[in-house]
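Q: Hi! First time doing this. I have a protein sequence and I read that you can turn it into a structure. Is that right? Here it is:
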Amino acid sequence: PMVVSDVEAGCSCTSTSKPDAPIKPGDSGYVEATIDTGKFGIGKFSRDVRIIANTTPSPLVISMQGEVIQ
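A: Yes, that's right. Below is the predicted 3D structure, encoded as structure tokens:
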């Protein structure tokens, strides 16, 4: 099974969660990352999240990009 041991946010504006239990082959699991865009101004942003698991590659780095328009 896949074991997600940690999910690390690149900054304090990002909160994360990970599955509590191992993910069996054929099953699905979710990693959540939420960005508090109120902590920065209008414009484009990019934030990274590192997923630490028993996989290759580990860590897996996910980049989230967006734009605050108001």
